[in-house]
Amino acid sequence: MPNKILQLLKPGVPKPVLIALGAALWGFAAYRILKMGFIFIERHALHHFLNYLIGIAGFIPFFLLVFRKVSLRYITRIKNLPQRRPCMFAFFDLRGYILMTFMISMGIAFSHWKVIPELYKGTFFISLGLSLLASSIFYIVEGVQFVIQNQKGKHNDN
Questions:
Q1: Residue 116 domain-assigned?
Q2: pTM for the full model?
Q3: Has residue 154 been placed in a domain?
Q4: 33 lies in which domain range?
Q5: Among candidates 23, 9, 148, which has minimal Cα distance to 92?
Q6: Burial (CB count <10 Å: 0-12, 13-18, 19+), residue 40
Q7: What is the pLDDT of residues 17-68, one digit of tens each?
Q8: Number of domains in the chain
Q9: What is 66-97 written as a DSSP string?
């Protein structure tokens, strides 16, 4: 009986919505990080263009070697969830939530302690923010492909 009550109260959503929620989360994080990166660079850089260029150059390996793999792992996990309507918070697993909490906490701590000069943080934040933005776009592309594949599967079943 308690299991049925939990199932009724669980905010279940279709898998494409879950992928969209993941994309929205990455997109929101990208916006926040990029905003800080722009502020720090505009406030402290002598050669803005150079700092933006370094940030963009850092984004490429950062996304390809880290964020793309992480995003693909979570998207694949969502697609393979056994539930038809998993909980809307299932876009990360426990490990993902712990990692996000750690990353956010470290970001706040580094900002508060002022350990790293803001110019360097700004350049790093451009790399990080663009990686998060690319991950959000990656989620959207994968989500659209997932919906298209499911629609084709439904039409082939009929």
A1: yes
A2: 0.87
A3: no
A4: 14-148
A5: 23
A6: buried
A7: 999 999 999 999 999 999 999 999 999 999 999 999 999 999 999 999 999 9
A8: 1
A9: IIHHHHHHHHHHHHT-S-SS-BTTTTS-HHHH
